[in-house]
Amino acid sequence: MSHSVQSAYSSKAALSAVASSTLFACMAMVARLVSATIPGHQVALIRFATGVVVVAIAGGALRLDLRPRRWGWLVSRGVFGGAAVLLYFQCIEKIGVGIATLLNYTAPVWSLTFAWLFLRERPRRHAGVALVLTLAGVALVTSGRTGGWHLGVWELAGVFSAVLSGMAITSIRATRRHEPDGRPSENSWTVFASFTILGSLTTLPTVIPPLGAWVAPTAQEWVLLALCSLLSVAAQLLMTSALGRLTAVGLGIINQNTVVLTLVGGWLFFHESISLCGAIGGLLTIAGVLWSVVAERAGVPRAADA
């Protein structure tokens, strides 16, 4: 494939990732709104259940090939991703959409490590610079909110959700890349199916005895839950598609766009404070996102030498 064609594919993937991150921010805002009356773990379950229904309908209507080929990576994507989302939605309920998203989206730190360990994937130098800018921004936002470096129980849960998310993103990358031996990659629908099915199984125990209980939503709450779920489905499919051409780290950096949007949205709509230090951190994060897009335009990511 020529360099110009590779660049075109990479540019399209980067734009898909930006669109995905924006939709994820909208989803998080709706989740924050509905979590005032519906527990975060139940919101997560309904999100996953909606995804299962969408896969079933699309599979039948479009006659999709949903046969799994890379079982290990698909299970990894579903289990780690499901647990990450469960913790993320609970954190949105407990500590607010801005800080919950901020902590969850530190996943690039972990996906960098996992992708290097398991995929032998070495990022470009441009991506490294973008990662430094992004993480510096995240650190400033955290410091500005807490007045120090102390994390509570739910803040720690947010960090752990990022660790799980980092492994889940690496698993997506593994299912979507083309192997040198010619083995076909998983399509985005198969990856999404594993995520929704295993995610549903992960969250189901939280709403049934003895671990939890179901809270019956009102008609208005069902509308918000449906909107949250559909935004999630669209964002997830765009993200999975983008990972066919982006590294786990590249996507993670672009996803910092979600952090900025939710911090601003949390301040505007839910009175979640943003300090001067946090605002500076947000600007650094935006710089990292833009730098990442430029880096991905240079060509498809390279793998480490065998």
Structural description of this entry:
This protein is mostly helical. It has one domain. The protein is 75% helix and 0% strand. It has helices at residues 3-34, 40-62, 71-95, 97-104, 107-119, 125-146, 153-176, 188-203, 219-242, 248-254, 256-270, 276-297. Helix 3 runs antiparallel to helix 4, helix 5 runs antiparallel to helix 10 (248-254) and helix 6 packs antiparallel against helix 12. The longest helix has 32 residues, at 3-34. The chain is globular, with a radius of gyration of 19 Å.
What is this structure, in a nutshell?
With 306 residues, the protein is mainly alpha-helical.
Biggest sheet character:
none
Q: How many strand elements?
A: 0
Averaged pLDDT: 82
Radius of gyration: 19 Å
* DSSP strand content: under 5%
- State the share of residues found in helices, binned by percent: over 70%
The SSE order reads: HHHHHHHHHHHH
Number of domains in the coordinates?
Answer: 1
Q: Report the uncertain regions.
A: 1-6, 299-306
Structure classification: mainly alpha
Total helical elements: 12
Which overall shape is indicated by the principal axes computed on the Cα atoms? globular
State the end-to-end CA separation: 21 Å
